[in-house]
Amino acid sequence: DTRQNWMKLQTGNGNDLMQEIPPTGNMENVEVFATVFSNIKVSLNIINPHNLGDTFIIKRLANPTIELRISCPLSSKFIYTAVDYTPVNAIGYDGTEDYIAYKFIPDTGFDYFSRFKINKYCGDTVYVTVDIK
What we know:
The protein is mainly β. The chain has strands at residues 7-10, 16-21, 38-46, 55-59, 67-71, 77-85, 96-105, 112-118, 125-132.
């Protein structure tokens, strides 16, 4: 499937409102919202619990300047909900991708990113599970 025939909706000033609309996409009855938001429930799936004394740090989606710190060893569990989260990336016909950043202390020298898809909007909830290896 070639994306060169795909469509996009643009605003009056030429900004993209929605991208990657397949040519077979039905544009009748399309609703446009001034602000798109979703509730994101974030859980951890622990494959490697890491060591006692280590600290797991994950950025909060709604406010990335706030970090949630969890002492290791880790266990699989729900950790927070980002309420009315507005995606950073442009919205595609079938959703948009976003990511959650996390790292460990002592510092491994790496920042990790877990990608997820937002495809439910306006009060619906997207469930995101971050696999920790």
